[in-house]
């Protein structure tokens, strides 16, 4: 088990989700009651961390605002990428950042999830 697996397992234990692990594709996705999804995926020597917000309308306009926000605002050291993804017939706005393998810890993952959530909240509040 590499450090990324151990860090995800530790994150799960600290947040009351004992046994949290990457699946066979190297992904772990959690669904909140709000509809937001929190995910992490191993991609070579880094982790892709994302938070997605379900959209009820105007997905293109949301994506355009997200692109503009991503261009002008960063999460501290992390740039944010934005995308649309369809899940179960519904559009989701995805905010994504990357964490290098050597920096991937339970604390850093929690910080990324919190920061991406705040980033999406700020985008929503701009309207």
The gist of it:
The protein is an alpha+beta fold.
Please describe the topology of this protein:
Blueprint: H1 3-14, E1 27-31, E2 37-43, E3 46-54, H2 59-72, E4 81-87, E5 90-100, H3 106-125
Antiparallel strand pairs: 1-2, 2-3, 3-5, 4-5
Could you explain how this protein is built, in words?
The structure is a single chain. With 127 residues, the chain is an alpha+beta fold. The protein has one domain (3-16, 27-125): Yope Regulator, Chain: A (2-Layer Sandwich), CATH 3.30.1460.10. Helices cover 36% and strands 31% of the residues. It has 3 helices and 5 strands. The protein has helices spanning 3-14, 59-72, 106-125; strands at residues 27-31, 37-43, 46-54, 81-87, 90-100. A 5-stranded antiparallel β-sheet has the order 1-2-3-5-4. β2 (37-43) and β3 form a beta hairpin. The longest helix has 20 residues, at 106-125. The protein is globular and about 40 Å long. It starts with a helix and ends with a helix. The model has no long low-confidence stretch (mean pLDDT 90).
